[in-house]
Every structure is written in structure tokens, then in C-alpha cells.
Amino acid sequence: MLQAFEWPVRVYYEDTDTAGIVYHANYLKFMERARTEWLRALGFEQDQLARVHGIGFVVTRATLNFRRPARFNDALRTTCLLTRCGRASLELAQDVLSMEGELLCGGEIKVGCVTLRGMGPARMPAEILERLNHAL
């Protein structure tokens, strides 16, 4: 079984609502940070992908399942696991967990590769696909 990439997140006051729990949309931000760091760990900086290849990644679908609330100042772990790699899209399983491993929010995220000029679908360059397929 493949191991998911993990990235730590701390809940700041700005992440919470008036009840002191993480506002639901902020789980997407936590997952975005983990995806960015996962790509970085694979050797891809998003600004270089834009500059060298003229491409970027955009979220095309996100499904979240909320289980338990996170609260101000909680230390969390956000995971990222590639589940499918197409020529122009990626599907990932992402979780936000307590440091003890309790699932707080689970997500299925699909991102598409696009040209930054026209924002249309784009095939990922072969070197990127090769490295991503090794992550499966």
C-alpha cells in the first residue's frame, strides 16, 4: 500500500468561525497547501511549471466529508495520496487528521492541467507524467 504524503498545519484564529471551529472552506486551503508541498517534494515548483511549461493545475472537482471539528490552535496533519494520473488530470485522496490520527475531514480532489494563456486543458509534459506515475 502506498504511503500518503503528509504536511503539518496549525489552526490559526483566522481559520475559525464565531463558534471557534475551523470554517468548512478552510479545509480546502489546508488540502491545497499539502498538494503544493507534495508537488514540491516530487521536484515541481508551481511557478517553474508556469514559467517553463506555461501550465498550472486547477481544481475541477472537490468532494469533502466532514467528520469532526478542528479548533483554534489545533495541530493537524494533512495528507495527499495520488489515486489516478491521467494525461491532463490528477485525482487525489486527501485527509485532514488530528495529530493522534483521528479523521476530521476526508476529501477526493480532482485537478486538471491547463494552459495559463487560455486556461484550456493541457497534457502534462512527459517528465511530469513519468514522475507522477512513479508516485502511484
Explain what the structure shows.
The protein has 136 residues and is α+β, with helices and mostly antiparallel strands. The chain is 24% helix and 38% strand. It has one domain (5-134): Thiol Ester Dehydrase, Chain A, CATH 3.10.129. It contains three helices and five strands.
Short description:
The protein has 136 residues and is α+β, with helices and mostly antiparallel strands. The chain contains three helices and five strands.
Report the count of strand segments.
5
Give the overall silhouette.
elongated
- Helical segment count: 3
CATH level-1 class: Alpha Beta
Write the CATH homologous superfamily: Hotdog Thioesterase
The chain-level structural class is: alpha+beta
Helix content: 10-25%
Beta-strand level of the residues, as a percent range? 35-45%
Strand order of the largest sheet: 1-3-4-5-2
Q: Helices and strands, in N-to-C order?
A: EHHEEEEH
Number of domains: 1
Query: Distance N terminus to C terminus?
Result: 10 Å
Radius of gyration: 16 Å
Uncertain runs are none
Largest sheet: 5 strands, antiparallel
Output the CATH topology. Answer: Thiol Ester Dehydrase, Chain A
